Amino acid sequence: MNILKNLAVGANNKPSPSMESSAIAQGPDDDVPVPGQQFAQFGAGCFWGVELAFQRIAGVTKTEVGYSQGLMHNPSYEDVCTGTTNHSEVVRVQYDPNDCSYDTLLDVFWARHDPTTLNRQGNDVGTQYRSGIYFYTPEQEKAAQESREKQQKLLNRKIATEILPARKFYRAEEYHQQYLAKGGRFGSKQSAEKGCNDPIRCYG
User: Fold this and answer.
1) What is residue 204's DSSP assignment?
2) Catalytic residues
3) Which of 18, 131, 151, 204 is most buried, taking the most CB atoms under 10 A from its CB?
4) CA angle, corner 136, sides to 194 and 93, nearest 5?
């Protein structure tokens, strides 16, 4: 996604977030899932490939990509790419707990990225690409912490994943939504069918 960042002409001239803006952005995610379903939120690098991985999971009924954990109210992609807003690129997952456990979502999260690289996934570098689990309930927080401890025992490098309460979610621009399923940069659609195991091409 650094290619798109290079198109953000003049983005570095934007002012720093104000205190009022920060207070709004640091508030809770006040959106509500449909009755009987729950939200989960993850940051694992560029949100395009992460979203597609979750789209393929049975019991996941909706995915959205966006920005969270930052200091600016209603940021744009260009704002986030300046590195001054502290937002993380995240995927918000809506799922039916009767068909998909939170532990299943955690497994997808760990498998999709390298949690030991701080503010980086592959060639994508910046705080917006940090690894994070953002919980909505005490039960999610407990499961996330236990899962991180389990993963740490499997790795020989320290995990950099942050575990924090879910903050206000700012839905990303429409062209980012289901980006790879819609064809990505090269117009080659990738399957979002449930259970699909096709390799994910991160940029399309």
Assistant:
1) -
2) 46
3) 131
4) 20
